[in-house]
Design brief:
Blueprint lengths: L9 E10 L6 E6 L2 E5 L5 H10 L9 E3 L5 H4 L2 H7 L4 E3 L1 H5 L3 H7 L3 E3 L5 E4 L2 E7 L8 E7 L8 E4 L7 H7 L4 E5 L4 H6 L4 H8 L7 H13 L4 E5 L8 H14 L6 E6 L9 E6 L4 E3 L10 E3 L15 E4 L1
Parallel strand pairs: 3-4, 4-5, 5-6, 10-11, 11-12, 12-13, 13-17
Antiparallel strand pairs: 1-2, 1-14, 2-3, 7-8, 8-9, 9-10, 15-16
This protein binds zinc ion (ZN) (2 copies).
The site of one zinc ion has 6 residues, from helix 2.
């Protein structure tokens, strides 16, 4: 008798960076009719134009989640929200530290969120976690499909002074990660920035260097990350090549047995390549034997990854 497998239901989660770096940050995540942004750090006009590049209108956005109140993460909010009443999620301390004009624009749409909170927006579930940064409050977000019990899809970790247990735990298991790779320490040392600013960037509540970012990548890859987007690169104290070189070397040196890993850098002011994740909403299918419906149900695992690593020792790194 032929074996009958039910095709598991799948959904697509799509994601890209819209803008990255000190001029403004924003990450897009979508699933079906649900579209969200993590940060809206460009001007309202620029955000509308960036969304148009991925064929979306601002009115398609169901919610905006803010990591912290620094201007490169909230810039669009005042004008955007006064025109379009999009729900905004933010930690209270971040909201409290915004200017009065921002607060009045956000009055109608603001929702307060705290680390460890979980919010459902349409078909997406968004989990919040704490990050160390010199704003009043700072958080990162993990996004998954609401029907998917355990598997995390996308993780965003930006503006982090140092790596913490909370960040690692949150990012562990995410398929796609946006992670800050802010500066090359040597370039920062020799830059024209005032000593105080250099100190701030290097501090435990400043920004993550290329090396600090790279160090954690093998662990995250070992725990499921397959598409890594280096995010929030400094325009003054970093280059795309340096960030990729450091990450690539550290991943290869770890000699992981994981197959292909994609590594990319979020462009400064244009959308990155759209990443599509196929998520199985059911982990197993029970199929009755049609000849004997009373027989014990057979459980067939239909979504086991069948991809064999190309190399036994080192991952293949493709550039996104
Ligand atoms: Zn910041
Ligand atoms: Zn920032």
């Amino acid at each position: 008798m032929a074996e009958i497998l039910e095709i598991p239901e799948t959904v697509e989660i799509s994601t890209c960076s819209l803008s990255s770096g000190s001029s403004g940050n924003s990450v897009y995540i979508g699933c079906g009719d649900t579209n969200i942004l993590i940060d809206a750090g460009r001007s309202a006009k620029a955000m509308v134009e960036l969304l148009a590049e991925i064929n979306l209108k601002i009115t398609d956005i169901n919610a905006i989640f803010i990591t912290h109140e620094h201007i490169d993460h909230v810039s669009a909010l005042k004008v955007l929200i006064s025109r379009h009443k999009i729900p905004v999620y933010m930690v209270w301390e971040s909201f409290d530290n915004l200017g009065g004009d921002y607060k009045s624009a956000l009055g109608e749409v603001i929702n307060f969120i705290s680390p460890k909170d979980s919010v459902k927006i349409g078909s997406l579930q968004i989990n919040c976690y704490a990050t160390p940064h010199d704003s009043k409050a700072s958080v990162g977000y993990i996004i998954k499909h609401i029907g998917e019990k355990t598997r995390k899809a996308v993780g965003v970790a930006t503006d982090i002074g140092h790596m913490t247990k909370e960040i690692i735990e949150a990012m562990c298991g995410c398929k796609v990660i946006y992670i800050e790779s802010n500066h090359d320490p040597e370039m920062l040392k020799n830059s024209s920035y005032p000593a105080q600013v250099k100190q701030r960037i290097k501090s435990k509540v400043g920004h993550l260097s290329n090396k600090e970012c790279a160090e954690i990548l093998p662990y995250l890859i070992k725990n499921g990350a397959r598409k890594i987007i280096l995010y929030h690169l400094s325009g003054e104290n970093n280059t795309k090549d340096l960030a990729v070189k450091e990450a690539r070397k550290t991943i290869l040196d770890a000699r992981l047995n994981v197959g292909t890993v994609y590594l990319g850098v979020a462009p400064k002011s244009s959308p990155s390549k759209m990443i599509i994740l196929n998520i199985n909403t059911e982990s197993e299918k029970k199929i009755l034997n049609p000849l004997n419906p009373n027989a014990e149900k057979k459980i067939l695992l239909t979504n086991k990854p069948k991809v064999k690593p190309k190399y036994q020792d080192i991952p293949e790194i493709n550039i996104l």
